[in-house]
Amino acid sequence: MANENKNLAKIIELGLNETIKDGSFDKLFNQYFAEDVARANLTKRRIFKIEAFDESANLPLNRKELWFTHTAL
Question: In terms of pLDDT, which residue wins out, 16 or 50?
């Protein structure tokens, strides 16, 4: 069962990476969430930068395409 989960996780990750590359992820995200993001008034909010915690070593921080920014819409 554990190997099946690992294989499934790899397949899902590959699929998500493909949607990011071809732009369909952003298109789908914007289709469903653009209005919510606009209502959030992100340009008028304060941003607090918090130093990364220990688990951040597992986060792909260098892949900017994985992180939402209000300018992405």
Answer: 16
